[in-house]
Amino acid sequence: MRIEGIAGVLLAGGLSRRMGGGDKSLRTLGGRSILERIVATARPQVGPLVLNANGDPARFAAFGLPVAADVVEGYAGPLAGVLTGMEWARANAPDCRWVASFATDAPFIPGDLVARLAAAVEREGADLACARSDGQEHPVFGLWRVDLADDLRRAMVEEDMRKVDAWTARHRLAIADFATDPVDPFFNTNRPDDLAEAERLIAAGLVR
Ligand SMILES: Nc1nc2c(ncn2[C@@H]2O[C@H](COP(=O)(O)OP(=O)(O)OP(=O)(O)O)[C@@H](O)[C@H]2O)c(=O)[nH]1
Description:
Blueprint: E1 6-11, E2 28-29, E3 32-33, H1 34-42, E4 49-52, E5 67-68, H2 78-92, E6 98-103, H3 113-124, E7 128-133, E8 136-145, H4 149-158, H5 164-168, E9 173-178, H6 192-203
Parallel strand pairs: 1-4, 1-6, 4-5, 7-9
Antiparallel strand pairs: 2-3, 6-8, 7-8
Bound molecules: guanosine-5'-triphosphate.
């Protein structure tokens, strides 16, 4: 699978309640925002890249990325962001048959994430792939077929589907396993304590 055939969607549409509100992706970590870190790692891995966020897009202007609000209303969770990415790719990146999703609260994601998701899909002839570390699946870091957008929209609108797992359970899912030594690359910052832990990992030289 060629990189030009894969669009990317950065999921930043959540409410960050556990972080105390605002955008947790814009919190500073080691001198730059978490989102800046993720854009730097994600950017080279995909073709066209869109930021999925709700509310005033001006707060993300510095990134110079297109911003797409959730296409289903009511903060329907990360699955709404995946659907938004699929529909954005279909409208704006017609050469992309796949879209890779990145949650924007994991500052240390792997540089070979998309390549390994794509390899897993090809190896297993799957409809989608997601990352796994330490036995735990991370469907917010996934690779999704754009041509399933209408099916996903139907499931969200008509069946009120909200859980990413409910969608992955319906399809042939391939898994890409990632090592957690010295740090789980999908370590995510949900709470202020997680941010403090991430600062500690950087200060200890375990991650950059
Ligand atoms: N597009 C979109 N993305 C979401 C939504 N809810 C969560 N996300 C994203 O999914 C990823 C994981 O989010 P969570 O930590 O589960 O949710 P959150 O709303 O950001 O945080 P909490 O309110 O503390 O649960 C993050 O990148 C969020 O921005 C949503 O309703 N729409």
